[in-house]
Amino acid sequence: MEKVKTGNYRWVVCALLFFATTINYIDRQVIGLLKPTLEKEFHWTEADYGYIVMVFAGMYALGYVLFGSFIDKVGSKIGYGVSVLVWSIAAILHAFVKGTVGFGFVRGLLGLAESGNFPAGVKAVAEWFPKRERALATGIFNSGTSIGAVIAPIIVPWLLGLYGWQEAFVITGAIGFIWLIFWWIFYEIPTKQKRLKQPELDYILSDNEAIEENPVKLKWGQLLRLKQTWVFIVGKVLTDPIWWFFLFWLPSYFADTFALDLTKPSLQLAVVYAATTLGSIGGGYLSSYFIKIGWPVLKARKTTLLIVAIVVTPIFLVRMMDDIWVVVGIISLVTAAHQAWSANIFTIVSDMFPKNAVSTVVGIGGMSGSIASTLFPIFVGTLLAYYKGLGNITAGYNILFIISGCAYFLAWAIIQLLTRNMKPIENLNP
């Protein structure tokens, strides 16, 4: 337990990570919100738009690996800075392209650079927080995904109406440059941060984990031979596709099932995405609380993951509900639970690996989850098209909800098997 005043500079770092993640999700959503306008401007077909989305997803998966290794090699300050710089430039470049191929190129560059957000963020949390606070800190910065999902539908249509679609890309993309100024001024690893007082530095280092002054590069093969790496891969591969399903198909589900008018602001969708913020922070707080009362770190994380898997199960009841607000309540609970899962599965990496491997492992697992998330929509689209042809598309959604409810239990069971007698890795050398 923390008995004395240690200072709060580490939470300034957490705030920087939160704002970067919020900007990340705003920038990636702009094109979706401008889709009707861009379809008219460039005469896009659904296939054209699908191509652009697939380029983003594919490059996002590749970027996880490239940036994961890059950040471990150059350090979190430079690595995160490069990621935000490149994705901000890519976001602005959307305003200057002239066709589908151009959008595919800048979208790919955006996906490549945006993938650096989580490897850098998780590494920074490992550098700045003791294990007892890491899940909470990760939950707070991960909640930026939810805030970004809520803010973008508000500011992008406003910018479109006030200035035009080009300016919407330029203005939202430029926000990253403002963040970069604060990052460069206020971020440094704790042992080099002059603004940090000694009591807080001692608290940060209370787990007796070294902070590497000279980052090194680790090989994939070395990490893939470790069960600890596969804990994170399993946790991402089996659950990331569920999150992307809710992110991209939820509006269509409400439109198809409850005739929700998507041309108007949707309070229902706003409630769902706002709830994910509470899940992210709450999930991080819960496992951190377990550690503070004396639980072993891995037991605290796995117990929280099991609670999350249980909380997801009400999704099975959606098929029986006729009231849209009851469904909104259930889905809000489930999406909040996913974000609680995400906060803890990211934190497990920093629990199990030394700091010089964190970004690389997050990159490997993130790439795996992104590939699964790219392939799962093929199944979703095929399934829904089949049932739509039968005149019962709701049945297709119900099958997907059942899959969603089972995925977290399956992931937890595999993680439980992998972590028998597992101990943190104390040192990794290239």
UniProtKB/TrEMBL annotation:
Transmembrane segments: 52-71, 78-97, 103-122, 134-156, 168-187, 229-250, 270-291, 303-321, 327-349, 361-387, 399-418
One cellular-component annotation, GO: membrane
Keywords in alphabetical order: Membrane, Transmembrane, Transmembrane helix
Subcellular location: Membrane
GO molecular function: hexuronate transmembrane transporter activity
Pfam families listed in its UniProt record: MFS_1
Alphabetized PANTHER family for the sequence: HEXURONATE TRANSPORTER, SOLUTE CARRIER FAMILY 17
The protein's name in its UniProt record: Membrane protein
Topological category with respect to the lipid bilayer: Multi-pass membrane protein
InterPro entries recorded: MFS, MFS_dom, MFS_Na/Anion_cotransporter, MFS_trans_sf, Sugar_P_transporter
Boundaries of every Major facilitator superfamily (MFS) profile domain copy: 13-423
Species whose genome carries this gene: Pedobacter antarcticus 4BY
Coarse class of the protein's main subcellular location: membrane
